Amino acid sequence: MPISISFYLLLILILLTIFPSFLHASIPLPRGYYINCGCDKEDQFGSIRWIQDEGFIDVGNVSTIDNPNILPILSTLRYFPDESARKYCYVFPVIKEAKYLIRTTYFYGGFDGGKEPPVFDQIIEGTKWSSVNTSENYAKGLTSYYEIVVAAQGKTLSVCLARNKDTVSSPFISALELVSLEDSMYNSTDFTKYALSTIARHSFGYDGNIISYPDDQFNRYWSSFMDANLIVGSHSNVSSTNFWNFPPQKALRSALTASRGKQLVVQWPAVALPNDSYYVALYFQDNRTPSPFSWRVFDVAVNGKDFYKGLNVSADGVMVYASQLQLAGETQITLTPDEDSPVGPVINAGEIFQIVPLGGKTITRDVIAMNELARSIKNPPSDWSGDPCLPLQNSWTGIICSNDFRVESLNFTNYGLSGSLPDDIVNLTALTNIWLGGNKLSGPIPDVRNLKKLVTLHLNDNEFSGMIPPSLGELNNLKELYLYNNNLTGQIPESLRSKPGLDMQTYGNRLE
What is this structure's pTM? Predict the structure, then answer.
């Protein structure tokens, strides 16, 4: 679901980074990429450098929002009018197995002359992450953003947009951020199987502007959360390093509380949740001056079920979490004090993420081979970026993949392709069909003896030159070999002339 943010709050977030960097010399700069989509130059806001999206994506058009009061990050966007493309992907170089927070930001602004923002999908690597529907926020004059935490499965990481059945105009994006996280953060999640999509992140009892960088070194957004409960302020700071998830000190400086002996009940988050599994992290700190003679003990329950029994909260702070908690509808957190506790319960902050099962990944050798093929062809289809096979409904144009995420078929008949076939094509060992007829491909025919499953090879009506590889005769399953109308020379290998059951057509060459 989208998270809304007003122009003014976003402006404040930007301005917070403008203060001289020496004021925050001890705070590490957020590591990663800050992409101002569609812009033509870098913009430096304090310590954070927003850069162009060129080099991360090769498709789409750029547009500006005709509004003199628009924020710089929202004043440009990239949109994707090509209806034939199955997806439009940004690709980032990353560290394999490292953990990243991805944030996508959307402000429609009527850039295409319409009155309603388009609805479309977001894809992270090979997994559909969510649908983007910013209509409600846009009608209220708000910007929408989405966040997800993922671990890189390879040396690149792709963030893609794609049309769906509800898309009636061009998908677009205003800004894209990729921030490197520490290994300990959210580490109870198996990131080889799941990603975490942000639902809510709040500082309880706090009514100020959104907390972010430099208070949060990872530039996460901590919103205010107020209700009818009592509010207390902390007498001492906590160290973020005391918590695996590194919450900023500022997010824990206030809290909701109840009187001694009273339960504290908090309805959080404010939105009803779809029936699903969630990662929930709750943060607590005893707001009183540290003392060895005082304690604050209570039980934590979520929707009436035990979450943590006998939690002893000190001035140093403590976090409790559930890595897979089933929730649906409204969520109620109940803190019940120990009967001997001299003070009531307290809660400072919380994060909740929807658990997104990963859809898998095209086998690495096929990814490498397809990327090499994309580089060797001078004008590949515009959606040849990101994961080649996944999601299956958004696989690269012209390829068919198996259920175990192997490339099974290449069909580019009459696509007008030019360039050559790389030797790496032999690593696509699950291929059964290669149909490349009617293009302008040139160079030699690669040795494809490793493609043992190959049934049809159509290279007709191209500009291939050189000799026919004798190794084609070693392909026991080969039934169709169409090489006509090329620039091939030499003799037809005897292994092909005598191959039973082979339909071979070679006319229009200079063969002996």
Answer: 0.92
